[in-house]
Specification:
about 70% helix; elongated; two-stranded antiparallel sheet; mainly alpha
């Protein structure tokens, strides 16, 4: 793929992630990952929750005065289940935090990091050349910082792509957004008899 399309695709990917939102993508990826890789932990969590609900219901129905031995046994069972559930919830929360750090790092590498790398690697390359004298004395700015004179540099092309994509985003949002009704002032006509 040529440099012009590679940079455009990279900028588009970055803006797409920005539109969707990193948190939305993180939650989607975490749900997918947890369903595929951590199904047993979540199954155990659901099982513990169901057992705790059953034990609590039975504990509430048992009189502490009339059936103390049974009540004490149920109480210890509920306390043990709560401790085990809290431990499992802590493990799942730490797994989600670790996944979040890895996911955010991966997103950064494939968007911002890759953009910096492409800009650095192709800093002296021309994305494309402009016709001679097209912009007059401002032509040097299009080649800023290191591209050959009369060409468009990677940095300028990235800025142009980002700007065009943002304008396109705004246009699509304006087209798809429901228009708000505009209040039109209405004059109330009164009879001359009412004024007197």
């Amino acid at each position: 793929m040529s440099l012009i399309f590679t940079i455009f695709a990279l900028v588009f990917l970055t803006e797409l992630i920005s539109w969707i939102g990193k948190n939305v993508l993180l939650e989607f990826a975490w749900d997918l990952y947890s369903r595929l890789m951590m199904d047993t932990s979540y199954a155990r969590q659901r099982q513990l929750q169901a057992e705790l609900l059953t034990a609590r219901k039975e504990l509430i129905q048992t009189s502490a005065q009339d059936q103390f031995a049974k009540w004490a046994k149920l109480r210890r069972s509920v306390d043990k289940g709560i401790a085990e559930l809290e431990k499992l919830n802590g493990e799942l929360a730490s797994s989600k935090t670790a996944f979040s750090v890895k996911f955010n790092t991966l997103v950064w590498v494939f968007t911002t990091g890759l953009s910096f790398f492409v800009g650095w690697w192709y800093r002296k390359a021309a994305v494309f050349y402009l016709p001679a004298g097209w912009l007059g004395p401002l032509g040097w700015w299009m080649a800023f910082p290191f591209a050959p004179k009369g060409s468009v540099s990677v940095g300028v092309w990235q800025m142009a792509c980002r700007r065009v994509i943002k304008v396109g985003e705004r246009t699509v949002k304006n087209i798809l957004a429901p228009s708000e009704p505009v209040a039109v002032p209405v004059e109330i006509q009164t009879n001359s008899r009412d004024k007197e």
